[in-house]
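Example record

One chain of 157 residues, shown exactly as stored in the release files.
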Amino acid sequence: MIEQIYTFFTIETLYIWVNLGVLPFWLILVFFPTSNLSKYFVTSIFPIILLSGSYVFALYKSYLGSYDFLSNFELYLSISNLSNLFTSDLFLMMFWIHFVSINLFVGGWIVKDSQKFLINKYLTALPLIITYLIGPLGILIYWLIRIFYAKSINLYE
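Predicted structure tokens for this chain:
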């Protein structure tokens, strides 16, 4: 049975499951940010545990395929080394899970922070959608909205 599960979960299948798996979390963040579902299900550790499991699975598949993990440290030396790492589907999948996890975490932070400053949920929907798609640009847009509600700029909060 484990062999059947292992052959079913290819990198392509994992990619599809990760992309489809985060959509309910994002839909809850955008449309129901103040619900208990968002509080206990999305902005908790639960989605991070799920995405970490998929990351560990990708690491395991890399290990079985005798992937050279030491070459990952070369990505800091030049842009061409980074480009070479992205030729591996397994490394690309690990990067994608990393990216999706961080964006979802930031989306949860935006929701929690907007509730702290009583920012209208309709106003936070746009930065959330942009954070889902583009990441840092969504955070910047939220930060600009937050400045008006907080009535101050605090660089360390």
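Notes: Residues 2-150 form one domain.
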